[in-house]
Amino acid sequence: MDKKGLSEITKSITDLIMPFxxxxxxxxLFFGHLSPGGxxxxxxxxxxxxILITLAFGxxxxxxxxxxxxSHLFEAAGALLFLFVACSGIFTGKxxxxxxxxxxxxxxxxxxxxxxxxxLYNIGIALKVMAGLFMVFFILxxxxxxxxxTKLKMRRRK
Amino acid sequence: xxxxxxxxxxxxxxxxxxxxxxxxxLIKNEARYTITDILSNVIVFILFVLxxxxxxxxxxxxxxxxxxxxxxxxxLDRFSGFLLIIVNLVAAASALYSVSYMSRYTARRxxxxxxxxxxxxxxxxxxxxxxxxxxxxxxxxxISSYALVAFGTEAEELEASFKYMVMGNLAGAFILFxxxxxxxxxxxxHIAQLxxxxxxxxxxxxxxxxxxxxGFSVKAAIIPFHAWLPxxxxxxxxxxxxxxxxxxxKALGVYVLVRIFFVLFPEPLVRTLFLHLAGISxxxxxxxxLGQMDMKRLFAYHSISQVGYIxxxxxxxxxxxxxxxxxxxxxxxLFKSLLFLNSGAVYxxxxxxxxxxxxxxxxxxxxxxxxxxxxxxxIAGLPPFNGFFSKFIIILACWQSGHPWFTxxxxxxxxxxxxxxxxxxxxxxxxxxxxxxxxxKEVPVFMISSMVFLALLCxxxxxxxxxxxxxxxxxxxxxxxLNAEAYRSILP
Amino acid sequence: MIYFFVFLxxxxxxYGVCCKRNIVKMIVGFTLLDYSVFLFLIMIGYRKDGxxxxxxxxxxxxxxxxxxxxxxxxxxxxxxxxxxLAVTALMVALAVRIYERYGTFDITNIKKLKG
Lengths: 158, 492, 115
Description:
The complex is a heterotrimer of chains A (158), B (492) and C (115). Chain B is mainly α. Chain B has a domain of 226 residues. In chain B, strands 1-2 form a two-stranded antiparallel ribbon. In chain C, helix 1 runs antiparallel to helix 2 and helix 2 runs antiparallel to helix 4. The chains are: A mainly alpha (158), B mainly alpha (492), C mainly alpha (115).
């Protein structure tokens, strides 16, 4: 019997439903401009998936999927994606933050591409929110700050 | 006329912050610290050059192709341009200083990322023409400063940051409430359009006005909303104290108060309120500072008092008063950040900020001693330095508009400021050199160069009192602050 | 009349911030305070017998404009919720670190800075 994490029932149920919750988060992300949802709500649910894995399997279980270095990478990548898409208006000469793809692809309402730039914004926001919330949870629960010599360092709990 | 450079004041520091985080996540060896330092200094220097290039121009930029008042527009007038130069100047000096100072802290990537985000937030507040956008940029800058105040994660810094966070968050909630009230009545959030709509004496608008006053006075640290400042400013690392005291309380507090209350709610009640609060701030700040023995805490209390001088000038409402206030805003940013950087230099070499333990540092740290002397004489208002001229203009404006009691308070505040800075000089720099400080050396070259640069500027800006330079540099900014009609006419 | 309950919620949040001694209770008070302001902002945009501001394939544009609630406060509140989340996360992180340093959550014992 593995002592880390919660009981066997929780672990098997988490194994079963985890991909479905992830898929639901992705649905909110990609259809955020057509129905309620959007980048922020999708990011929160995606972070919730990883928090669920941490609760059920312990810190060793979640490191297969995402650890601190990779979440730093996701966070910076999400923010840079948002900034570059926002600057795409400057590169095509129309002004900062203009919805370039919407003006190019016309107004095909209720289709996936009708939002234009908004899909890319949603992806950037969701990456950043997911990485940020997961890191907040991970750092607060798994690490603590100890005094080593004269410097303060962050160490994992045993 | 449209200025295409305006969004870059916000894009560049944000880009820098996220690229720094990305590079630090990708590169694993020791070179990442040098790359981070170089990248952030280059970005802040570019911002400073950009702010000099848009000085004394007026213009706008429409974001996203949506026409105002539906869309957000960035509006630059002469007052914003003046403050932009001040913000980016102090940021450049602090960034250069923190190359050496922050080598003793871990997690430098977070420091530079938060620092650049704070600059992005402040530039955004100065440039935006939309109320909610102002709130968002203000929150970006404020949240970055919460994290930067707690950067060392010692016990006292965490407590100071928590106090700051409680008061700042409450202020943010009040401001959002006021925003909701204004939107519910007028349906618009665009400052220039709102100013032509708000003409009647509506109780809802008055309630929103008081909520804004409370919220933004917390950010500007006017008494009675000042209680976070004496704890938060000493606890931050020295370059962040310089930024907080030098520009944050002015860009987020004084600038927004002047914008909202001179453009949106132009009433005489406002000016009287500013006058009285400023007078109390002046006296209370300097009286509380007299008894302090911690160097940075003394400087922080003096920040409250000098912001009182600035609000006194704005509260008078006459062109001379506002010119004095704008001049004092420039001067205070320069000499207060110089003083905080000096206290950081003392802390870097001696490890203490307590005045009773220091002594005779002039003999071992000549550059730090000289620049602290220049800073102290500037803030106390001694003649060849800039503080004398700006306080002189404010006192003259007080006397001319018929407020004799406020003139007396301003003069008294100046005398007491001189007293407390003589105390700092005597305890820390003059006097016999103590045994434990005999081996102290001067600080590294980056820190010296940024302190000397600010000290030279303190001497150079005293020339702005001369009538020729004053007409060209200060008067346009002062007139732009007072003139609501000019602000409304920038957008076509 | 409904706005009275929003102000009541604001007052309860303010009570939680000002009068409670435990840091975690202060954080809960802040959450209540912030959310009451967001509720106020959304309720401003309400229109009597209004519908959600989401276009369907079957809806006509002019009927939609006359009947939907105002979507702008909803966008404002979405942004403000994210800001509130960031501040709450920062406050909670500070509370955890304060506990590691001082050993207590009671604000009357966290008094190293005075004067």
